[in-house]
Amino acid sequence: MRCIATLILALTVSTVFADQTIDVADHGIRPGTDCTFAVNRLIESLADRDAVTLRFAAGQYDFYPENAVERHRAVSNHDNSLKRIAFPLFGHQNVTIDGGGSVFMFHGRISPFVLAQCTDITLKNFTIDWQRSFHDELPVIASNPDDGSFVVEVDPKRYPHTIKNGNLLSEKYDWQDRMGSNIVFDPKTNAPIFNTRDYSINFSAPYTASHAGENAVKISGRVRKSPPPVGSVLISYGTHPTSRLCPAIHLDQANQTRIQNVTIHAAGGMGVIAERCDDVELDGLVVTSNQERIVSTRADATHFIGCRGTIRLQNCLFEHMLDDGINVHGAYVKVVEYLGDRQFLCEISHFQQWGLVFSKPGDRIALLSRTTVLPFFETEVTKTRILNELRLLVTLAEVPDRMPEGPLSMENLTWYPDLVMKNNTIRENRARGALITTKGKVLLQDNAIASQMHGILIEGDNNKWYESGGVQNITITGNTFDNVGFEGGAVYPLLASPLLNETQHMGEGHFHRNIRFTDNTIRSFSGHLVRARSVTGLTISGNRLEFSKDYPAVTDFPAVDLEYCDDVTIRDNDAVGFDRTLVVQTSDDCSSVSVGPNSGLDRP
Amino acid sequence: MRCIATLILALTVSTVFADQTIDVADHGIRPGTDCTFAVNRLIESLADRDAVTLRFAAGQYDFYPENAVERHRAVSNHDNSLKRIAFPLFGHQNVTIDGGGSVFMFHGRISPFVLAQCTDITLKNFTIDWQRSFHDELPVIASNPDDGSFVVEVDPKRYPHTIKNGNLLSEKYDWQDRMGSNIVFDPKTNAPIFNTRDYSINFSAPYTASHAGENAVKISGRVRKSPPPVGSVLISYGTHPTSRLCPAIHLDQANQTRIQNVTIHAAGGMGVIAERCDDVELDGLVVTSNQERIVSTRADATHFIGCRGTIRLQNCLFEHMLDDGINVHGAYVKVVEYLGDRQFLCEISHFQQWGLVFSKPGDRIALLSRTTVLPFFETEVTKTRILNELRLLVTLAEVPDRMPEGPLSMENLTWYPDLVMKNNTIRENRARGALITTKGKVLLQDNAIASQMHGILIEGDNNKWYESGGVQNITITGNTFDNVGFEGGAVYPLLASPLLNETQHMGEGHFHRNIRFTDNTIRSFSGHLVRARSVTGLTISGNRLEFSKDYPAVTDFPAVDLEYCDDVTIRDNDAVGFDRTLVVQTSDDCSSVSVGPNSGLDRP
């Protein structure tokens, strides 16, 4: 009797709790067809189910926008719009999508994955690509510095174009793009060319495109210094507000998300954008171009705004993006007006954060001066009312006895994540390796970074991007930085400094604190190590700098450049192969700076 | 006892049923402030109430977008977007908004009135205007036909501009408009100049704007024939998809709506756009420019798509619009694919109808050939499933035994309204007076029409605008047409003809039927009366044509031009003052045409 009862119980438990695997082919989802409609329906049918795995047999599955589910979506750092969605997970729980090594091929303006208000979702074992990229790659086959003109080769299949009224128009899936943002890549390095900004073209100014032979177009326009050299590749990547419509994966208030063994070859925006998510794990996420292209995503490989819990990245490769490898931050929201009664009329500061869920009841927030960007009061949110994507009403538990003069902002203290990055590679991309502004605990260990701009940027600003989060506790150790900063100029493996504009100034107290940059290896044509401003608690130790001849030497800037820093230790660093002693420079308002012993690096 | 009971009953009834008037000032809504937030809240508070009047004391009330309620809105014949709304009536019943003679002044991109899923709403006694218009009015002060250049005066207050990279940019509330669609008006007539198309400028082609003295800008660009003459006014009105964002009044599935004694001076789109509405009454609606401007609305004064019941217009004045006075029609929706099981994958045909509510269960629809635009099967809709703004699944009660070859469309037969237009004036506008394609009963009586294009256009097309509705029963009587058609060419007081393209052809059977054009008075520089094609049942009688010298005579076209028409009577018409006998021309495929007796009008 008891045995049978146990068996029945076991069966029941099995039915309720065990992972149920669905072979998507049973739902008409097969390689070689437009799967959008069937995938939409299947995912919708899972809304009330738990512990389900969708399994794809290996193959190429195609997704088109025409029949796709559509929602108006605000996506931070992208262009908000009515978006068609291939995998629309809204409120789903405990779902695994296992691509089985498949390629998910997208066509036109469609968002591959949206995970909104989901919990415990795993995406794994597939590749995201687009049949036609959102950018264009145009090899330069002639270049005339005298008149600033140049000729590009236009592949009629991969980058079909039309010339109309002297404008070069890129033919996309069902729209045309004007020439817009642009950058020049070097096909030998698959990275931006050294000093690429010299070759940028102002396509907002009048220019003329004309046929210059079969599949060749001559462009006469306003170049910054010189037309791009022969052998380079001009990358054109669209104009606002239609150039960031389609991130590959959008995590919106999604908790406990895992992305494993996923490759992203392209996106009309970022690879992964996460906002107000609790715990995100990326393991084996690869963002790279496909065999036919130099460039991968239109924007950052990964980006996290207002998240919490732990963001964990390991064994990832991010390369060939047109923007940063990773960016982790919060948002400074403007106080438009204190309405009394503990109620504030607030405004999302940056237009690409419109629609951000800034706060909910129970969140701790800081009130801060918009002039010094330093907080002066902490309390709890009791109510948030959204007026529209721009504005909201925030009611606080308490307010200061006297509201200070001058412009104010808020930041949400509850939604700053810890970050663990181990064994990742970020390289050959435009812009930075990693931007980190979070008050959580941060560990970057055993990563390889070779970005065009700063390797690691710990910034925070309340005037341009409005990315909040003076750091509290960061360890950067055991990483290698390989020729970081080949945009040229004062570019560093590590820059830690808030970005202030002319109406802002340092206040009393430092913006960032507790940054340890230790035991890293830096191969460098510039000898740059660390630049820091408004940091208290900074250790730079055990790092090895090796001279590199891979780019023209940059010798105008100190190796370590400190301004308004406190409690700094610089010791046991070793600079090798440079023709000079690298310089540690400190401003007069620095305090408690200890330098030495170091090798090849010293105060002047 | 009985008396008291009656009294109590009366009091109760009074409380429940009597109209409750709210003085908006009691809710902080006062002239001279941004009323948007308070009006939003007050209207929201009425959601569950019935029989309420909001009363405004006379004054100017201002509305700004920053704090306004926001919804993604699909608006037919406009540009869909996230819209800020001043008066957001969603699901309201039995509400009257009485402006008390006030001016409601709008600023920037905000939609004044949205009535969605409402019943029994009255809007009355107010004026809608915008502080800054959506178009620009630029007086031409120099004109050089030799090189195609011209100089415009730019009022720095009303039409502030910036010149950037040779482009003239119009500074709006919080955005810049490029030069785009344009037309030339004559300030002496407050209407488009004769043959205005000759002066149109292709701002998509390269052009150069340069300063030409204080508040003067020289434009060198591609004009169609000649630059606009000195003394005319160039009207520039934006580019797609940002030029039709803000209609003044949007009725969306709103039943029993009355608009009385309302004036509309401007709109970033149409004055009134109504879709899937049952019974709309416009009495004393005035669409006209304000004292400072020549032009009123960016698009049609009024427009009705897929409505039913009765549309009643009386005592209205529509003038100075940049598009038609009124347009009443349904929509042809494409059948993309028959999926079997009585289910059709359908697609909204025109991008400015995306999001249209085409059908709901219970609606009768016709299936029709997209080639002949003639219906072949009628049945009922049993289910509609929206995939996105473009596509929907429609399930029908029955399907033909054999689905015909060739492309198919559907039209919704349930949602065609009757139309009564009496005692209205439409004049001095770009485009047509009235477009009418509805299967309902139509009476146009005692109206005065003086439009630039056709006076009354009974069209229907399934290839360009996809406006459905071959007419069944139209009476046009007692109206005056004053110099209609001053765009020049083959323009008529009445044109009745489906618009076919080169892939379409006439089928068996006529598209329109039963049109009576009787006892109208026509003052005309061309002697044009009626052009008709594919009409059965056409009476043209008792009309008086008087020669007008107000525009250059047009003598190239017949007065009455008939093609593939049947059952036509042309009698008792009187043409006076022309230097020739006006011609009735009929094609060989006409049948049963009776001409005469007429005076000054005959077959050749």
Which shape of chain A, going by the Cα principal axes?
globular
Helix content of chain A: under 10%
**Would you state the CATH class of the domain at 23-132 and 243-319 in chain A?**
Mainly Beta
Beta-strand percentage range of chain A: over 45%
CATH architecture of the domain at 23-132 and 243-319 in chain A: 3 Solenoid
Question: How many strands, what sense, and barrel or not for the largest sheet of chain A?
Answer: 23 strands, parallel
Total helices of chain A: the number is 2
Query: How would you name the oligomeric state of the polypeptide chains in this document?
Result: homodimer
CATH topology of the domain at 23-132 and 243-319 in chain A: Pectate Lyase C-like
Largest interface: A-B, 25 and 25 residues
Task: Describe this entry's structure for a reader.
2 copies of one chain form a homodimer. The model of chain A is unreliable at 1-17 (pLDDT under 50). Chain A has a 23-stranded parallel beta sheet that branches. The first copy, chain A, has a 15-stranded mixed beta sheet that branches. Chain A contains 2 helices and 56 strands. Chain A is 4% helix and 47% strand. Among the domains of chain A are: 23-132 and 243-319, Pectate Lyase C-like, CATH 2.160.20; 136-236; 331-412, Beta Barrel (Thrombin, subunit H), CATH 2.40.10. With 604 residues, chain A is mostly beta strands. The A-B interface holds A 37, 66-70, 72, 80, 82, 84, 164-166, 202, 204-206, 208, 345, 347, 387-391 and B 37, 66-70, 72, 80, 82, 84, 164-166, 202, 204-206, 208, 345, 347, 387-391.
